[in-house]
Design brief:
By secondary structure, the chain is mainly α. It is built from 20 helices and 3 strands. β2 (231-235) and β3 form a beta hairpin. The longest helix has 28 residues, at 3-30. Zinc ion (ZN) is lined by residues 259, 263, 289, 292.
Amino acid sequence: MTSYELLTAHHREAALWSGIAALVSWDQECFLPTGAAPWRAEQQAALAGMIHARRTDPRLGDWLQAAADQADPDQAANLRRLRRDYDRACRLPPALVIALAKARSEAYESWKAARVASNFARFAPDLQRILDLVREEADALGWNSAGGERYDALLEGFEPGTSTAAVAALLTPLAQEVARLLSERGHRPAPAIPRGHYPAGTQQALGEEVLDAIGFDRRRGRLDRTVHPFCTTLGPDDVRLTTRYREDDPLDALYSTLHEAGHGLYEQGLPTAQFGLPLGDAVSLGVHESQSRFWENVIGRGRGFAQWLLPRLQSRCAELGGWDATTLHAHLTAVAPGFIRVDADEVCYNLHIVLRFELERQLLNGTLAVTDLPAAWNARFERLLGLKVTDDAQGCLQDVHWSHAGIGYFPTYTLGNCYAAQLAEAATRDLGDLDQLAARGAFAPILAWLRERIHAHGCRYEAPELIRRATGQELSSAPLLRHLRRRYG
Ligand code: ZN
């Protein structure tokens, strides 16, 4: 076997094990009996250890070196990303990896308890420990001390090819413009869902009808119930979506399904022949999020989609019989600042991200002490969103990310929104008005466009280049602002 073949076989096997680990986690989120949790944690730790050992196998360095000499362009693209991932993994001392894993699981438990009690002080020592370790992690990974900052090293793990400075240059003016839009436009309350009982089974059937319509292949995936919705890939032909049902609001689950379906469509569109290799893998969290936001927001909250959806909704939910498409669209595009990021509307959402980006950057570079986080959060929140935070559970304790040491993760949500809006403008140039396509249920050309421009490339290009090639333009927040002004201005 050539070195490239050895590498391919090795990574495919690692990907098989990762798929099994994903299956075990999916089962934990959807079906695991509570008494089985400790046993499941042992299974997950055993799998994680095996997978990590494979991904840092010392033979990989030799194979990567040898394969580079006779690589064709596809192979070279795979080797570039494999080399980067391998080098990053090898830079982390095993003791640090273990310390981080332990700190994460402890911080997760203390975060849960602190959030229930709405008491930041209970989480603060664990957050401090996480920050100390994450600084070590960033230093081990390396960053450019001339002009760069520690945050760059962490961001690179979530959104390769971008930088803190580039993210700040995108987010800061975006926040100013969004704040202006909010103050000009004022709040737009949602027409209330008619009181009624909307059974989960009916909602599941509606969700599956929408999945089929937009092109999610249910022979290569399925939709199940969970507490916190997510999408996970167990293998190239097995993409699992999850949702949760509120039986007083059928749109809540539907839009979370649509969001996860955007992730799922991306996964189903990746080249199956490259399974286990970078060309068969999603390029970044931001690009992944762009696909979910594209279907949930750009398409799903458009007037055309509301027209298409209304009769389907009414045929299953008689309580909504009195609504017309304008009422449905008004419900889907309500604007009202709130405390919780995951409930935020399209306009306010990015302000929640700017807040987190600024604070975690300050925490990391030491200009904000952990103990001062709640006060800093609350003051900044009031300036950005005009609301006074009165308890930590609704404030700086609401997200799981920092307990998971996911510092550098938050900006990928807004990057996803920016990519999605930029893709929508380019798709409109090629396909015509997307709202009109959605109104007649013509989702296939939209999906085909995303398949060709984004999905088919896997990790061939880093996100900034992928977006440039897909849209013909450099990344900018202007398309997102145009989208928000058009829809909400
Ligand atoms: Zn998402």
